[in-house]
Design brief:
flat, 264 residues, Arc Repressor Mutant, subunit A, 63% helix
Length: 264
């Protein structure tokens, strides 16, 4: 399920994201309203965290707040605008304060690890396409943070743009696989161990010459790491390991590009 952000009214969404629109009041001199945009956004995130993107609706958010869906429309025009606000609020959790004094590689590694963990806290965010950004302050702040940690590498703009894109996709892609692995047992009703056992036994029977037919794959799988049946979370742990390995190789490449650029 892929969801595109920015499908609501552009003026209303951007005003709410950048808080150009004041919170509505119940009357000219009356008390402040019992609801706020921030409370509605927090409730929307809670619904999506607990039940997934498919469960998100204005009605579900209203029920969590003890209100009707109609009561929310005074503050947020609709679900599309709410989703933009939720997305930006989650991205505000991404790390922004890494000290570049430790070096660009250490800062980038720390950022990527924390971003990976943040996405696993809110896996529904990974269903929101990056093709059309929300352009909220947190989203742009997250991009600024990535550029800040990589600034010390001294790459020219064109290379830096490619590195940032690759880094972001590595984090999001691996986090999405880890989140799906975490949800697989619950959503399918089949534990990881049972799934692997049922298929591995069939494969051993149907392809007794597996090692001869797929020697490189066999060597890769025998090279260490978690094995199916060692307990829950096999694929998630394998994904985490692959994420860290891929991140290290990506940063090795950045280091090579930096060294090449520094040569006279």
């Amino acid at each position: 399920m892929t969801v595109f952000a920015g499908q609501g009214d552009a003026h209303r969404s951007m005003s709410l994201l950048w808080r150009g629109a004041p919170e509505p009041r119940t009357g000219r001199s009356g008390p402040k309203p019992a609801l706020t945009v921030d409370a509605i956004v927090a409730a929307g995130i809670a619904v999506a965290d607990a039940e997934g993107m498919a469960a998100l609706s204005m009605r579900a958010v209203g029920e969590r707040l003890g209100r009707t869906a109609m009561a929310l429309y005074t503050y947020v025009p609709g679900k599309a605008e709410l989703l933009d606000l939720m997305h930006d609020r989650v991205l505000a959790e991404l790390p922004t304060g890494h000290d570049p004094a430790a070096g660009w590689r250490a800062a980038t590694t720390a950022w990527a690890e924390e971003a990976f963990t943040c996405y696993l806290r809110h896996p529904w965010v990974l269903q929101i396409s990056q093709a059309r950004p929300v352009l909220g302050p947190a989203e742009l702040g997250a991009m600024e943070a990535v550029l800040r940690v990589l600034d010390g590498a001294g790459l020219p703009p064109r290379q830096l743009r490619g590195v940032v894109a690759a880094l972001w996709q590595l984090v999001r892609g691996m986090a999405r696989t880890a989140a799906e692995a975490r949800a697989a047992a619950t959503d399918t009703g089949v534990a990881d161990e049972d799934w692997w056992y049922a298929r591995s036994t069939q494969l051993a029977t149907l392809a007794p010459d597996f090692a001869e037919r797929f020697p490189l794959l066999t060597a890769l799988e025998s090279g260490g790491g978690p094995e199916p049946g060692e307990g829950g979370g096999y694929l998630e742990e394998q994904t985490r390991e692959a994420f860290r390995t891929g991140l290290a190789v990506l940063l090795d490449g950045v280091g090579t590009a930096v060294a090449r650029a520094e040569r006279p």
